[in-house]
Amino acid sequence: MFALNFNNTAMHIFYGKVALIAYLKTIKTTNSTIGFVPTMGALHQGHLALMQRSLKENDDTVVSIFVNPTQFNNPEDLAKYPRTLEEDVKKMRGLSDKMILYAPSVEDIYEGKTISQDFDFDGLENQMEGKFRPGHFNGVGTIVKRLFEIVTPTNAYFGEKDFQQLQIVKKMVEKNHMPVNVVGCPIFREDNQLAMSSRNERLTAEERKEAAIIYQTLTEAKEIFKTKSPEETLEFVENSFKDNPRFELEYFVIADESTLLPIENKINDKKYRAFIAVFVNSIRLIDTISLN
Ligand code: AMP
């Protein structure tokens, strides 16, 4: 265990699971709760909001920072993923020095076998991110299950920005009978409404400004969907991106919020959500919006 000291405050930082598990044993009591916020670092306000919620709702909060190799299908994306541990620690400290940080190595998690387990998420894994990033959700399932086993959280906090991931984690917990309450949290956005993401760091100032088109298109699509069909809404979105060649639309899908299956027709009383993935100069950004 390492306690980093800044201005007389200390935050517990663990790089290995054995020491973390031993420490958690010392602080756990019969009725105490552990909140957990798994992240890949390069922390922004969206991550900090999850931590704030966990701090409010639990006796102790564990945050993990781990760029999980098995969930990356694109080696360039993995290599270029921002790694800013020192900055991240400062941001966490700015929020509270009471959090426990677990920042493991690949070896500490995978013990020499950096491969994913195969999961069946009842089809949730076959749409959108699963379709365009083969193996991604097996990687997500593998790391989240491993982290839940190590941290044994009472409550685990995930952002709705990765809505499909949130549904998949809920499914994994249910299927594996894990005693964890999975909590979905709202999307944090930049001033121009671009969803906050660690990948935004890789955009130029101009790209970042213009990336406002993603959420703007989603909100316009939401309006159109009120009176038009899913197909006509998709047409509108495709045309918006054709007019902006800097942005390459990978997918726009309107899906049933619970099954994540794309819809052809609207049925009253079903909850729908639009999902989008866009490339900007080979940087991949995703966003989502509830449609009703
Ligand atoms: P990541 O570090 O990108 O793996 O994200 C870690 C957690 O933070 C995941 O549960 C994400 O859904 C969540 N998250 C990422 N960006 C945002 C955002 N803009 N607003 C809310 N939650 C977010």
Automatic annotation (TrEMBL):
Query: What's in the GO CC field?
Result: cytosol
Give the pathway annotation: Cofactor biosynthesis; (R)-pantothenate biosynthesis; (R)-pantothenate from (R)-pantoate and beta-alanine: step 1/1
Pfam families reported for this sequence: Pantoate_ligase (PF02569)
This protein is called what?
Answer: Pantothenate synthetase
Q: How does it assemble?
A: Homodimer.
Active site (record annotation): H47
Residues binding beta-alanine: Q71
Q: Where does ATP bind?
A: 40-47, 159-162, 196-199
Enzyme category, top tier = ligase
Give the GO terms filed under biological process for this record: pantothenate biosynthetic process
Q: What is this enzyme's catalytic activity, as reactions? A: (R)-pantoate + beta-alanine + ATP = (R)-pantothenate + AMP + diphosphate + H(+)
Q: What lineage, starting at the top, does this entry show?
A: Bacteria, Pseudomonadati, Bacteroidota, Flavobacteriia, Flavobacteriales
E.C. number, please? 6.3.2.1
SUPFAM superfamilies (UniProt xref): Nucleotidylyl transferase (SSF52374)
Q: Which gene encodes it?
A: panC
The job of this chain, per UniProt, is described as: Catalyzes the condensation of pantoate with beta-alanine in an ATP-dependent reaction via a pantoyl-adenylate intermediate.
